[in-house]
Amino acid sequence: MNEVNRVQGLDSLIGHEAAREWLGRMIREDRLPHGLLIAGPRGVGKRTLVRAVVAAFFCESRSGCGACASCEALERDHQVGWHRVHAAEGKSTIGIDQVRSLEQTLSIRAAHARGRVTSVEQADQLSPGAQDAFLKTLEEPPPGNVLLLTTSRIDALLPTIRSRCQTLTLGPLNTEELQQVAERLGLQPRVPWALAQGCPGLLARLCEEGAEELRRGVLWVLQSPRGPQDASRWNLVLRKGLPAKPEREVLRERARWILQVLSSLARDLAILRAVPGDPNIDNEDWKEPLTELAGQAPWADPAGLLRRLAEARRWIDGSVDPAAALTTVLFPPERSLSLLAGFEVP
Ligand SMILES: [Zn+2]
Predict the structure, then answer these.
(1) Which residue among 86, 261, 308, 319 sits deepest, i.e. has the most Cβ atoms within 10 Å of its Cβ?
(2) How many Å lie between the centroid of ligand 1 and the Cα of residue 58?
(3) Of 1.20.1250, 1.10.10, 1.20.272, 1.20.1070, which CATH number belongs to 209-340?
């Protein structure tokens, strides 16, 4: 059995200790809330945690032992008590029809004696209508049902959805925990650890062949004589190595990764501006070029830049063209608005 499919109990995960401890106790005492929202950045480990909850919930020893019949069924992806809801392949929303069909499923008695766990992955993808339709079920699911929602964009969920759930927020892992994850998965990052921003799900990215090249690409844009506003350089980096007409999701992923690199560099530039002497930075190997850049005008307002980065991330997760969202990050507002004309801004 490979590492990805192996059942992991709550005790054997790395990081998120308080959340794991609480979940384990709730499961052992049979007090798991019927509506639970697990929130945290992309790649922080929400899906892994959900699977560990499912394992423990159905496990004969309530631990996720990996050896009992229930754990073995989960390992083979045949855990009949676990029902999963997510956007259909190639779609970015969970529609109202899916919520209706979920209602029907929940009204039928669970096939497993312990009941049924339904996970709604990336619940922020529920369309506004679907969220509305979901409220009643979430408030009072039929007995024996537990609903686990996950989201990396909690602000995209209706307050009425949030108020019907107990929320568990997962924060980033520290470097030591990330190193443990990498060791367990046999990963060997090619770029500084800090780029994963505490998210194990991003570790694989750090190990990809093009990771270092992409990081260099971002620095190359920042060093442009035209400044970080150089849209043509951004476009080159965004599309490098991709087919002429890449799928939007591929482009989106690339744009997200570029933002990840950019936030790490922006953080370093802010530190280099603010802290005298020889401060520690994430991209320690680029101290010289970054120190040179830090003195320049575009980096005079790190808070503004971080705000725009967060905004660009929202745009990319929404339905905005990733290239437009990315080139907009550092553009003055009047220019960015014209670039975005024709795109829907969430
Ligand atoms: Zn077990």
Answers:
(1) 261
(2) 7
(3) 1.20.272
